[in-house]
Write a structure and sequence with these properties.
elongated; mainly alpha; 86 residues; 3 helices
């Protein structure tokens, strides 16, 4: 994929929808971390470890989305960042 293909993909991005999807993903990570804490409290170690692995994997996707959105904004794309926090 050339840089022009990347810019074309970024031009077709629905930034508001991406921001909403990112928020949903962040909420899912928070839920998984809460579930992990409950599992650990009940000494369900293997399930707690699995939940932690899943949360960390999803965190990686969130960090990639942050980097992509920051770079796109710096290049002048109309990126939308949701400002609500939980």
């Amino acid at each position: 994929m050339s840089l022009s293909h990347l810019h074309a993909a970024l031009n077709r991005t629905d930034w508001a929808a991406l921001a909403e999807q990112k928020e949903v993903l962040a909420n899912e990570v928070a839920s998984i971390r809460s579930a992990r804490a409950l599992l650990a409290a009940h000494e369900c170690d293997s399930a707690a470890d699995l939940a932690l692995d899943q949360a960390e994997s999803l965190d990686g996707i969130l960090h990639w989305m942050d980097a992509l959105m920051d770079a796109a904004q710096q290049d002048g794309f109309p990126v939308v960042f949701l400002t609500t926090t939980e």
